[in-house]
Automatic annotation (TrEMBL), chain A:
GO biological process, one term: negative regulation of autophagy
GO molecular function term, any single one: protein phosphatase binding
Protein name in UniProt: Myotubularin-related protein 9 isoform X2
Myotubularin phosphatase domain boundaries: 187-565
Organism, scientific name: Enhydra lutris kenyoni (northern sea otter)
TrEMBL record, chain B:
Localization per record: Cell membrane; Cell projection, Filopodium; Cell projection, Ruffle; Cytoplasm, Myofibril, Sarcomere
Protein's organism: Enhydra lutris kenyoni (northern sea otter)
Protein name, per record: Myotubularin
Compositional bias of kind Basic and acidic residues: 14-32
GO cellular component terms, A-Z: filopodium; late endosome; plasma membrane; ruffle; sarcomere
Membrane topology qualifier: Peripheral membrane protein
Binding site for substrate: N313, I314, C375, S376, D377, G378, W379, D380, R381
């Protein structure tokens, strides 16, 4: 991790430094690994001279460690709602034993609670390193006391279940209360990729970059700039926006250069019971077809059933009337969303964690969760959209109701199927940034809790996780075609739910601007693109594939994503060992070649 | 091997492009001839038929029948379908429809295959057109009933490696460190007089005399006495295999058998008990007493502990596989895939076999106790358990040649009744002796190779090739029921070994990720969560599921290997050229042999 620049913001150790120091470590990496080289030199005097007595560890093993521990404990004091974190910390430390699932050995040592983290320092004779957990990743907490000791069970958003056995009833209760108070804390963040817009401009001039949403007045959930048909002016866009739910008028999602056709996304039109129409909206879609090629057909892919789309009229929504949009044909492919999807996720995690469950019944239990059925539906709908663009050479507009969930699932997956660039490490990160984060997927609401929370789900839904699962299925079916491996998908899952980086914070670009996420936090992408981290996330087998990758969507071809859902249950050994060997081989290959393998697909 | 036309779902991937490039091995492909023919293969007839493809509908084609295969080439220009089915694969031929039956394509032949597919041909209704095809197929597919020689005997293929030399029992036992102070090699069964289904060469306790062996044989079903299969190189515990004791209803005892087991126990001084694993469910073992069999009771056999492993008999396995075929061929069950898969119980049986083998391996390796394994006759479940346990314990068997030796030793030489279980050349398709026991073993090996992707030198194609030729009868390897029968038929002189085919083109069957590790014991996870249906085998005929075949990773590996060979060759040429130029001998030692390991890292 010596590549990470350990920047302190002049005024001392702000939250930014803490984020960097912990960096990648929210999945219990060790501190030794995190310790930046040269920390001693660049450390501000205030912390370096911290008195040894304030150090919570009985017998520090090295001055370096003490120093980092001090940074972690004393440094971060950001405020949430005017309340100091320190007020939430009921007790500093306790003696504890940590159980990390059936496969890992228990850890014993001193437990500490800081503003952001839970730390466990092994005793002086301890051989292992400091263990830490980002408090924000705790999904639910359960405490039990018996006699003069207590047990806290932490269920994390990344589906880990941890058990802390703590000496002393008071200490247990205090630590539990501290964690409960602190895990609500939040920090902020971002990174801008307007590169895609440039790429489209190189391929065609039928589209333009419009800054009509500069002040987010047209659409709260769109970014400042969007790509729209050149033939449509900003005034017309403003009127379109009023005709679409949440102002999400049709914008370009992907331009398929070989056929010259496009993938668009929007929200539902506000036709309402009176079947209202909007001339500008109709004109916009007409312009899309005209801009593609003469006579190009258009498909509107509604991610709701025909029935549900019709019903939406009662509440002011609806779907495009055939007569109003000549050349456009409507298709309905209902995708599950919202609460049923969340429930499916919860059931699946329950089934996976149920270790006592006898052998018979696992498969039917897995089926009853319907998770794989959702994967199948998502992938086949994306195939349909991609086929429309590639085989039928048609323009495809995707929308559901709000256009912020299943719509994005379909457009982003269709791009992975069609676009070789989106299968590269950089391309995929840009895809996530552009089609999920900037496209206004409400991460803040959808990923507030993961599968363990006892709170009644309101807006939670694992749409993004479903997307990652589908990408994993693609990677399994085309092992050479994705430049990134399972590691990146796991990292995105973890960070979407709880992250020391700001990338997944807030629900839209507007909120991110208001919260100054960009200046106050660090971008996950810069964390992931550290050379050492990046190499671990790469797929060593990658060979650029210029063709479309059409996945098989039969249930026999889809698998449970064991790496995620059984991650903390299965013995990690075989597959991890296998990948490490592959990496080793790769490393020696790079050494002999003296360069990074080429990652640019030839188009 | 059918190569169906690419479906709409899985074309256009780089991975699939490579299919066309693979060539059929060992087969003379004369371009002027319509059918590939093996040396010794003769053409019998050909006929125009309509192949009713379950995936793409009726296809007009010409079928060629030789004494080895049924070969169909489509006559339609837009479909390049080719079917290449060895006659040995055929289990049943039925006439479908009659001369007067109506409806298109209702008159013809329906062929049931042993490898999870059925073939249906429609013929013209006039003039008994199917009669001669039916008769020829019946005659050559079931030579047993027509006193015709098996095709394996007519095969005149030549390979540069002789597969019959792979397994030499003396050498294999010497590799295991035998004979030693406690175990001796005996030729008592040289003429198969002691036990006609055992090999000629056996390893028995040093302290048991040949007379003892003869007396023990009277008390074991079919005289299959306990003999050594494998010895642990360090702790010297052994895996011993045999058949059930002939206890019967009256609870007979045999002093010699009891003493013999005690002698086996005493070869290992570390543990005071000998562990007996009876592969059957407890009730079946008890029920076997009625037919004269049974199990070792506590009061007769002191110093032993007996466990039942609950693996069901050949009839249960046959029915289970039948159910698998029902849900995968021709149409795969889509709506309730997982629960229908569960209802076949196939994976459950796999799990039980693996669990049993894990217990055997663990007892020997960690429990430091010698183990005796039997079922009823000791040639089905016993072979599965001993061979899988040996695969877990001994990394030698995980190499290509090691695995061939394992199959040759534990299955072929110890009398797994291949001829009866597969029904080679036999038309009695409903024979209750048929059962997919060996297939189940290969499936278990595949499950292990999935969980330990770097532990096996061979790839999936190796396993599928073994299974294909298990049925094809092209090689003598799996012909007949036991060694004595094979010797009588002079199989090694009159037929070619499957290992000749494989070992003469080993690269094709190599796992690119193989990392040789000595002394690593593999314990696969035999939980339902970690087992999956071997889709690439059981559903390989379905073009919608059959994607990614051949495995793109292996395909790429083969390409890279070819590239490496090319470079090595060029390097040698250059070195030759330069050494010719520079006649200074001091610069020449950096020959190609030293460059090899360096080049090798570019797997």
């Amino acid at each position: 991790m010596d590549e990470i620049e350990f920047s302190s913001t002049g005024s001392g150790w702000g939250p930014r430094s803490e984020v960097l120091a912990v960096g990648w470590g929210n999945s219990c990496e060790t501190v030794r690994w995190l310790l930046p080289r040269g920390l001693l030199n660049s450390c501000p005097a205030g912390v370096a001279s911290c008195p040894a007595s304030s150090c919570p560890f009985p017998s520090p093993r090295s001055p370096r460690l003490t120093l980092l521990e001090s940074v972690l404990l004393l440094g971060p004091r950001p405020t949430t709602g005017g309340m100091e974190f320190s007020e939430l910390i009921r007790t500093g430390r306790a003696q504890a034993k940590l159980l990390r699932g059936p496969e890992a050995p228990p850890l014993r040592g001193t437990l500490c609670v800081t503003g952001h983290h839970l730390l466990l320092s092994p005793g002086p004779q301890g051989t292992s390193d400091l263990w830490l957990l980002l408090l924000r990743s705790v999904d639910s907490i359960e405490k039990r006391v018996s006699g003069d000791s207590g047990t806290i069970t932490l269920r994390c958003k990344d589906l880990r279940v941890l058990q802390l056995d703590i000496e002393g009833v008071e200490a247990t209760l205090d630590i539990a209360r501290s964690i409960e108070g602190l895990r609500l804390g939040d920090a902020w963040h971002f990174h801008p990729p307007e590169r895609y817009y440039k790429r489209v401009a190189r391929e065609t001039n039928a589209w333009r970059l419009s800054e009509v949403n500069e002040d987010f007045s047209l659409c709260l959930s769109y970014p400042r700039a969007v790509i729209v048909p050149r033939a449509v002016d900003d005034d017309a866009l403003a009127r379109c926006a009023r005709f679409r739910q949440g102002g999400r008028f049709p914008v370009l999602s992907y331009h398929h250069a070989p056929s010259g056709t496009v993938l668009l996304r929007s929200s539902q039109p506000l036709t309402g019971p009176q079947k209202r129409r909007c001339a500008e909206d109709e004109e916009l879609l007409r312009a899309v077809l005209a801009g593609a090629r003469p006579g190009a057909p258009g498909f509107i892919l509604d991610t709701r059933s025909a029935q549900a789309a019709k019903q939406a009229r009662v509440t002011g929504g609806g779907t495009e009337a055939k007569a109003a949009y000549p050349g456009w044909k409507r298709l309905h492919r209902p995708l599950e969303r919202g609460r049923p999807l969340q429930e499916s996720f919860v059931r699946l995690v329950e089934a996976c964690g149920d270790l006592e469950q006898s052998m018979d019944g696992w498969l039917s239990q897995l089926e009853a969760c319907h998770w794989l059925a959702h994967v199948k539906e998502a992938l086949s709908t994306a195939c349909l959209a991609a086929r429309g663009v590639e085989r039928e050479e048609a323009c495809v507009l995707v929308h559901g109701a709000e256009g912020t969930d299943s719509t994005l699932l379909v457009t982003s997956l269709a791009q992975l199927i069609l676009d070789p660039l989106s299968r590269t490490m950089t391309g995929f990160q840009e895809l996530v940034e552009r089609e999920w984060i900037q496209a206004g997927h409400p991460f803040q609401l959808r990923c507030a809790h993961s599968a363990f929370s006892h709170a009644c789900p309101k807006h939670e839904a694992p749409t993004f996780l479903l997307f990652l699962d589908c990408v994993w299925q693609l990677g399994r079916q085309f092992p050479l075609s994705l430049e990134f491996g399972e590691g990146l998908l796991l990292a995105l899952f973890e960070h979407a739910y709880a992250s020391p980086f700001g990338t997944f914070l807030c629900s839209s670009e507007k909120e991110r601007c208001l919260c100054e996420v960009r200046t106050r936090t660090h971008s996950l992408w810069s964390g992931l693109n550290q050379p050492k981290v990046r190499r671990k996330l790469r797929n060593p087998l990658y060979v650029p594939n210029p063709l479309a990758i059409w996945p098989s969507v039969e249930p026999q071809s889809l698998r449970l994503w064991q790496g995620l859902f059984l991650r903390w249950i299965r013995p990690p050994e075989p597959s991890q060992v296998a990948w490490e060997k592959v990496w080793q081989r790769l490393a020696s290959k790079e050494k002999t070649e003296g360069c990074e393998p080429t990652s640019k697909p030839q188009l | 091997m059918a190569s169906a036309p690419t479906s709409k779902y899985n074309s256009h991937s780089l991975e699939n492009e490579s299919i066309k490039r693979t060539s059929r091995d060992g087969v003379n492909r004369d371009l002027s001839e319509a059918v590939p023919r093996l040396p010794g293969e003769t053409r019998i007839t050909d006929k125009e038929v309509i192949y009713i493809c379950p995936f793409n509908g009726p296809i007009k084609g010409r079928v060629y029948i030789t004494n080895y295969r049924l070969y169909l080439r489509s006559l339609e220009t837009d479909s390049a379908l080719i079917l290449d089915v060895p006659l040995g694969v055929i289990s049943r031929i039925e006439k479908m429809g009659g001369a007067t039956s109506r409806g298109e394509n209702s008159y013809g032949l329906d062929i049931t295959c042993k490898d999870m597919r059925n073939l249906r041909f429609a013929l013209k209704q006039e003039g008994h057109s199917r009669r001669d095809m039916f008769e020829i197929l019946t005659r050559y597919a079931f030579p047993l009933a027509h006193s015709l020689p098996n095709i394996g005997i007519l095969n005149e293929e030549k390979f540069n490696v002789d597969g019959w030399m792979v397994y030499n029992p003396v050498e294999e036992y010497r590799r295991q460190g035998l004979p030693n102070h406690h175990w001796r090699i005996t030729f008592i069964n040289k003429c198969y007089e002691l036990c006609d289904t055992y090999p000629a060469l056996l390893v028995v306790p040093y302290r048991a005399s040949d007379d003892d062996l003869r007396r023990v044989a009277t008390f074991r079903s079919r005289n299959r006495i306990p003999v050594l299969s494998w010895i642990h190189p360090e702790n010297k515990t052994v895996i011993v295999r045999c058949s059930q004791p002939l206890v019967g209803m009256s609870g007979k005892r045999n002093k010699d058998d009891e003493k013999y087991l005690d002698v086996i126990r005493e070869t290992n001084r570390q543990i005071s008990k000998l562990t007996i694993y009876d592969a059957r469910p407890n009730v079946n073992a008890v029920a076997n007493k009625a037919t004269g069999g049974g199990y070792e009771s506590d009061d007769a056999y002191h110093n032993t502990e007996l466990f039942f492993l609950d693996i069901h008999n050949i009839h249960v396995m046959r029915e289970s596989l039948k159910k698998v075929k029902d849900i995968v061929y021709p149409n795969v069950e889509e709506s309730h895939w997982l629960s229908s898969l569960e209802s076949t119980h196939w994976l459950e049986h796999i799990k039980l076999v693996l669990t049993g083998a894990i217990q055997v391996a663990d007892k020997v390796s960690s429990g430091k106790s010698s183990v005796l394994v039997h079922c009823s006759d000791g040639w089905d479940r016993t072979a599965q358990l001993t061979s899988l346990a040996m695969l877990m314990l001994d990394s030698f068997y995980r190499s290509i040649e090691g695995f061939e030796i394992l199959v040759q030793k534990e299955w072929i030489s110890f009398g797994h009744k291949f001829a009866s279980r597969i029904g080679h050349g036999d038309k009695n398709h409903a024979d209750a002796d048929r059962s997919p026991i060996f297939l189940q073993f290969i499936d278990c090996v595949w499950q292990m190779s999935k969980q330990f992707p770097t532990a096996f030198e061979f790839n999936e194609r190796f396993l599928i090739t073994i299974l294909d030729h298990l049925y094809s009868c092209r090689f003598g390897t799996f012909l007949y029921n036991c060694e004595s029968a094979r010797e009588k038929q002079k199989v090694t002189e009159r037929t070619v070994s499957l290992w000749s085919l494989i070992n003469s083109n080993k690269d094709k069957y190599k796992n690119p990720f193989y990392t040789k590790e000595i002394n690593r014991v593999l314990y696969p996870v035999a939980s339902m969560r970690h087992l999956e249906l071997w889709v690439n085998y059981y559903i390989r005929w379905n073009p919608r599921i059959k994607q990614q075949q051949p495995n793109p990773v292996e395909q790429r590996y083969v390409e890279l290997l070819a590239l490496r060979d090319e470079y090595i060759q060029r390097l040698e040429e250059l070195q030759l050229a330069s050494s010719a130029k520079l006649s200074d001998p001091s610069t020449s030692p950096s020959g190609p042999s030293q460059m090899m390991p360096h080049v090798h890292t570019h797997f």
